[in-house]
Amino acid sequence: MNPKTSIQIFDLENRPDLKIIMLAGQFDEFSLELISSEIDHVVATSRIKHLFLDLKNLEFINSKAIGYLASLHWKLQDKKSHLILLSPPQNILETLDLVGILNLIFSFNSLEEELLSVY
């Protein structure tokens, strides 16, 4: 894993059905195994309705990581849950849009924006 890559997992107070995972650095073939194992563990051990990936500190994402996001989307959808991207930087947003992943996965500028759109 790239030493600049990090993952942090947060619970929202009074909302056990929501998880926020913050990714920072580079999401590529070198960090994919660690990041995917952490996220897969959360999905397998939690009864989440919404999994938020906060990407505001993500610098780079490659095709393998994007493929994992698509796979994660389908896995969550099978569980009647949702993957939501938060605060992707412009370069990440453009890459995700270019490959069509934003046709599958919602993206919002902030958690507050997403909550306002739903509630």
List the helices and strands and how they pair.
Blueprint: E1 6-12, E2 15-27, H1 32-45, E3 50-61, H2 63-78, E4 82-86, H3 90-98, E5 106-108, H4 111-118
Parallel strand pairs: 2-3, 3-4, 4-5
Antiparallel strand pairs: 1-2
Helix pairs in contact: 1-2
The level of helicity is 25-40%
Number of helices: 4
* CATH class wording: Alpha Beta
First CA to last CA: what distance? 38 Å
Rounded to the nearest angstrom, the radius of gyration is 13 Å
Spell out the helices and strands N to C. Answer: EEHEHEHEH
What is the global morphology?
globular
CATH fold call: Transcription Regulator spoIIAA
Instruction: Provide the CATH architecture.
Output: 2-Layer Sandwich
Could you report the average pLDDT, rounded to the nearest whole number? 91
Low-confidence stretches are none
The structural class is alpha/beta
CATH homologous superfamily assignment: STAS domain
Structurally, the number of domains stands at 1
The strands making up the biggest β-sheet line up spatially as: 1-2-3-4-5
Tally of DSSP β-strands = 5
